[in-house]
């Protein structure tokens, strides 16, 4: 490693954990998984210009690189423990690089501290700006939240609100008055600083029949659950949880489109047998994120959406529309 | 994930392992570390144009992305088990992409099968061509080969031969007659298909006092061992193991420079107390890679090199030279 970025990141993200037997600085870290726990592992990459716009604050990038991975652990009901960071940076003047690395470390470590995640290894290379983070967490055997357990009759929920991040991305550059600017700042915070629903994932263990985090967009991710579980799902657009910030910056139809198809929400979408729905909602309300019932699991395949007016919608290139007249279809 | 590359990679790299409780296809993999074992984890990135030249065969890239990581596990004396792959690919026509992915999977899986490594998770994104691989292995508590255990009086060894990969990279494009072309093909194979010294690493457990894999170049990596151990080292250039392919394509001084400073060898460099040197050499000879004594650990700091003529050398911009007259130094 030609430059000591990982050392610097380590200093800024230090976390005392007894289960880290040897941290950064050797060929590999040595870690002890607690007896009786399975290891949950995931990896995700952020590329400049693809996953975050050029010019995004380094601290936001550092936060988000860890957040999208912790969101995967949350969706499994795992308790986060360790992270690896592979950082690719273009050649640049030393002081610019130091500012960038300090910013990345600040955002990464802020979130890492909240979840007691230790950075245990990494790699720094020259190249186009990108970060790959691998995370490790623990889950008792048999208790992980998988995608394949949803059953017809289960109710479908999501935590928090949907569509904010996608709206924040689309409205990033547009000019605005002061009130609108405040709303947009809220949306951009959802885009740049997603909060992985770790506590919600833990609360869902033993209760949700299936779970996924909403990264590609609600319908795409719910479709993954349906495919894995061999079921279909119906979503009621009128039930979608929309923030006042979102509703303040676009009309209801547009807000619905963001909520259904916009990605980067990092909320949890999960299925629960009706008998457990009440206790789950109460618990997630106590955790602060809440959970909103948005539909149900049905026999069959695929995800269908009922519009605000009760009519079934179909996807269009720019969003969702009523089914056209059957005779008009090719 | 917009395209199902990881599924395809999984199909091509399938490995039955009882300790994989849930593989690719959910938000995270679920894994069981054997009782009484510590987990060794490492991550490394390869970027096109930085770690491999544009035009490198996809199968070579897939092999190398896993090899450089298994080399880290080898240097810890860990038994490889699982890998994660984060793959970033530029937009390209579907058939070109399929060829690329098939090639990557072929090389990756060839090496994975040799070491029973299961691909348990991944991520595919759009962007400049790069691969990050994270690997996981097992090692009994207290038996890992660390960098910080070298003591003055220990002998320094390397497995295999040094300098081939660096020479292969430098001579990649040059024209050559048929005999020379064969030699260069051998050097390029060392560059493109490094063989992680996993069995050697296991054989060194409980015997080597310190170990590292040679990725940045012998002297740079041995210096890491010295820093971590609080010692110095002396290397004897006359003892460096050089392949006939290397000696056939350059003179002795150039070959020495490649061996001392060229990276990408992925041999193991390790320190052993003299009393154990004989048995270690015999065991590594039986494993096929052999081990050559190249120097010794001394009190102090830093790495010094004695040239073929017995005089101490100093680094220059292009390689190594005799110490100039003391009075000539600034």
UniProtKB/TrEMBL annotation, chains A, B:
Reactions accelerated catalytically: thiamine phosphate + ATP = thiamine diphosphate + ADP
Chain residues that bind ATP: 122-123, 147, 215
Domain annotation PurM-like C-terminal: ranges: 151-306
Binding site for Mg(2+) 5: 216
EC identifiers of the protein: 2.7.4.16
One Pfam family this sequence matches: AIRS
Residues that bind Mg(2+) 2: 44, 72
Protein name: Thiamine-monophosphate kinase
Species this chain originates from: Dyella thiooxydans
Primary gene name: thiL
